[in-house]
Amino acid sequence: MFAQQLPWLLFSLFSGVFVDRVDRRAVVGAVGAARALVMAVLAVLVWRDLASIPVIYAAVFLLGTGATLSDNAGQALVPSVVATGDLARANAWISGVRMVCNQFGGPPMGGWLFAVAAAVPFGVDAVCFVASSALVLSLAGRKAAPAAGPRSPDGSTARASVRQEIGDGLRWLWNRSALRMLAVAMGLMNISYGGAFAAYVLYARERLGFSEVGYGFLLAATAVGGVVGTVSVARLDARFGAATLLRAGMVVETLTHLVLAVTRSPWVAGLTLVLFGAHATIWGVVSVTLRQRVTPEGMLGRINSVYLLFSMGGFAIGSLLGGLVGHAFGIVAPFWAAFAAMTVMTAAAWRVMVPAALSPRATEPARSPA
After folding, report:
1. How is the chain split into domains, by residue range?
2. Which residues form the signal peptide (predicted)?
3. pTM, whole model, 2 decimals?
């Protein structure tokens, strides 16, 4: 887990600058081809019984490095092919498809393919990366505008340094209280989440008694909730507003850790994960849509990179901490730690996450008092 998420801590901000400088479709397509090669090599090594733990760490690190580019560019692509009024619906369906394929279809299929032969799921994954790369490269839409650089004395546009462009993105986000608050909250939530689920496969086997295929179906429960969130998020947002949905999401996530800490029932765990999946989709759609609507197109890569640094970097830190806690205190201890952390965070964020803080006015730059 940590090896796969570590690249977000190392490269996320640099990837954001790169995504703002080049054609984002080309980025997603090229990274898909590179990840296909990594998976193909891993499939061969597994087939030849040459895949050691260091080899697997290296493979997932490379996949995670590619994700810092493709995930960022993928989010930045959406506003260039979707009208502003359709962003929420588009993000909801993208999130729903990801949930269905990654967690509903993928894990049971992966468990079945692994039972056929250990190398097969890695080979299938390589083919899927090639197909996804071809689909994105065929996508119609305008090329994202490059980030504006400072003017040189002769009036031409000079390219700013990487450090300067990163600083511009950080300052832009920091001066918008709503976006800053969501980034920090996401980071803290993912530290807790990553810690709790770092050894999830061991929890499912030792605590709930699942087999490999059963573990895949347990993951699919989250995807079922994701589908529910996909089809309901637009109506819920219109009726209750972003602040209420985000508050409710923090409560759901807090209670998820509590239930998984105390239950031994696969059915209770599965139903809890359905609710958690709905929350995760709703939270993600609300926050991503707000970000896409207010961020200039030429800065989307850098602003996304800060969010992804907080969210995926938080997950990486949490995964490492969760593994250490689980090893020292038992497989359930990370869920108790996550429950305690989320209880404190929810109480602290409750007063801040109000409609006024998430209004369009809150996305304007903070001003110094006269």
Report:
1. 2-138+162-361
2. none
3. 0.76
Rounded to the nearest 10°, the torsion over CA 240, 221, 265, 204 is -120
Q: Locate tokens 């530290």: which residue?
A: 191
Contact indicator for 194, 314 with CB cutoff of 8 Å: yes
CB atoms within 10 A of CB 188: 20
Which tokens is 282 given? 């709703």
Superfamily of domain 2-138+162-361: MFS general substrate transporter like domains (1.20.1250.20)
Per-residue pLDDT 10s for the chain (370 aa) are 778 888 988 999 999 999 998 888 999 999 999 999 999 999 999 999 998 999 999 999 999 999 999 999 988 888 888 888 888 888 888 887 887 777 667 777 888 888 889 899 999 999 999 999 999 888 765 554 444 444 333 444 556 788 889 988 888 888 887 788 888 888 888 898 888 887 787 888 888 887 766 776 777 788 888 888 888 888 888 888 888 898 999 999 999 999 999 998 888 988 999 999 899 889 888 888 888 888 888 888 999 898 888 888 888 888 888 888 888 888 889 999 999 999 998 888 888 777 776 665 555 554 444 3
Q: Compute how many other C-beta atoms are within 10 angstroms of the C-beta atom of residue 339.
A: 21
Dist CA 127 CA 122 (whole Å): 9
Using only C-alpha atoms, the chain has a radius of gyration, in whole angstroms, of 21
Distance between CA atoms of residues 67 and 61, nearest Å: 10
Q: Buried b / exposed e across 103-132, counting CB within 10 Å, b at 16+?
A: bbebbbebbebbeeeebbbbbbbbebbbeb
